[in-house]
Amino acid sequence: MLVQRPGAPVQDLVGEDTDYYSVDWEDESFADFIDTVLRPRHPTAVISLTKTGVPAAAMANSMLGTAGTPAGVVKAMAAVGDGEDNGGRRHIRVQTFSTAGAHRLVAAVTEGRTPSLPGHVIPEQCLSTAELPAVRDAVTDVLDTAGLTDGPALIRLDLHERGIRVLAAQPTAAADDDEAELIRQLTGFDLVRRSLAWPLGLSPDPQGNDAPHGKEEVR
Questions:
Q1: Extended strands (E) in 41-136
Q2: What is the pLDDT of residues 126-143, one digit of tens each?
Q3: Are 55 and 68 in contact, with CB atoms under 8 Å apart?
Q4: CB atoms < 10 A from the CB of 13, how many?
């Protein structure tokens, strides 16, 4: 089943056999929706594919005891970074996917640019030999400190001459549907479907044997 906010475009994943609900999860009635609609269905997991839905999914998982990103991890990641632009040399959005504590760098998208080739987003190709380990260390610190061990994360970084600043972090599949699709096309890594699969124990090999751009992994 799929739950979306009123007015949101219907996800491509919705089919004829999909139970679809339009619910405002910022309203106080969302807790009643969890109890009266979700609980009787005994879901295996509640997963958000968007940044705005992450807190709602965490709330549902906490109430239902289902798999998914824990509320504590969501809160810890929301507290990361200051979000301010202090004139950094380059801003990037780093997409990761974690399995049992192994954090894979999936993509690094430079803000203000529209990538069109794999080399524009594949971390090993679009980051310099100095930037790659620095980004790896920053990502590792964010994810390990927040306690995220499984699933996707989106981390916004400010690269500058003195190092790297973390601007923001969220346990979500991508900045938006278009970026998730672009990453899939350029890297072969389907963030949306992997994000849906991991709570069911179907997450990919963290070594990335099914992804064409190599084995970049952060532990």
A1: 90-99, 102-110
A2: 999 999 999 999 999 999
A3: no
A4: 11
Q: In what order do the strands lie in the sheet with 217-218?
A: 163-170, 151-160, 90-99, 102-110, 217-218
Q: What is the rounded distance in angstroms from the CA atom of residue 197 to the CA atom of residue 46?
A: 11
Compute and round to an integer the Cα radius of gyration of the chain.
Answer: 17
CATH of 80-218, one of 3.30.470.20, 3.30.457.10, 3.30.565.10, 3.40.50.720: 3.30.470.20
Coil, helix or strand at residue 83:
coil
Question: What is the Cα 48 distance to its own chain's centre?
Answer: 9
CA–CA gap between residue 13 and residue 6 (Å, rounded): 17
Region(s) of the chain under CATH 3.30.470.20: 80-218
pLDDT one-digit tens code per residue, 31-72: 999 999 999 999 888 888 778 888 899 999 999 998 888 889
- Cα torsion through 210, 141, 177, 87, rounded to 10: -130
Predicted structure pTM score: 0.80
